[in-house]
Design goal:
alpha/beta; binds ligand C2E; Diguanylate cyclase; 12 strands; globular; single chain; binds magnesium ion
Length: 274
Amino acid sequence: RAKLDGRGTFRFFEPEMDARMQARRQLELDMRQALARREFQLHYQPQLNLKTNQLTGCEALIRWRHPERGMVSPLDFIPLAEEIGLIVPIGEWVMRQACRDAVSWPAPLSVAVNVSPAQFKSDRLVEMIVSALATSGLPAARLEVEITEGVLLQESEKTLQTLHRLRDLGVRVSMDDFGTGYSSLSYLRSFPFDKIKIDRSFVKDLAVKPDGNAIIRAIAGLGQSLGMTTIAEGVETPEQMERIREEGCTDVQGYLVSRPVPADEIVRLIGSCQ
Ligand code: C2E
Ligand code: MG
Ligand code: MG
Ligand code: MG
């Protein structure tokens, strides 16, 4: 429904719609400044191997400390950053910062970095990662790239080539949020992932569904046959951890081990686990 506003121009949106679009536009403007203003920060969440009871590494998770809104969740800005292409410079900052932070952790602890579909469309991704490793001095074997099925959905030939180039460098590749997509299984066939990250929703099912552990058991078995690490995401209780161990998962990540914490805190946490 178009209407004439005070200045004599037509407005095509309902007021609420208009407000939503303005909020989005404002978020976009703010995000364009956030890198230069150093408002982004990385938090790290440890990953634990259930056999050795030792940490294997940490996942880097971006945080945005907005001057007025406080902490903005990545769930609220990463999708927009992807849509408008800003994820490319933001993702580069994440990669470089994560490598710089991880190089001070004791070897062989690794850092896992989330890389989004739009970053895979950029021709510079591999070059950028090579440069981040070289500048920081982090060995490629201590970097892990986490991708979701969104990455494999598009331009599959070029994407697979990029994944193989990363693999040739010695970088490991993980399939994130496994089991939530349309064809998680067929993606396992298209690339030899190092690690399967079982989505948090399946871990939640352990407590509420009678057969909740059947899916976890199946994925753990699949990982074992394929020689891939299987890590359960979102493990919050000792009961969940026990069930996950019983079903054969090799690793866990979740609030039970630790929430994501700032870089200086993760160094202390790693130190206390040594
Ligand atoms: P993800 O990669 O699947 O990361 C795991 C998310 O689960 C994180 O949310 C983490 O804080 C949360 N989590 C971990 N353990 C638990 C638990 O025990 N219980 C619960 N309820 N949640 C847990 P976060 O940090 O809000 O990140 C959300 C998503 O945003 C990530 O999901 C990832 O898709 C995206 N993201 C975060 N940082 C980056 C980044 O640097 N680049 C890109 N491209 N995406 C990122
Ligand atoms: Mg992830
Ligand atoms: Mg995940
Ligand atoms: Mg996720």
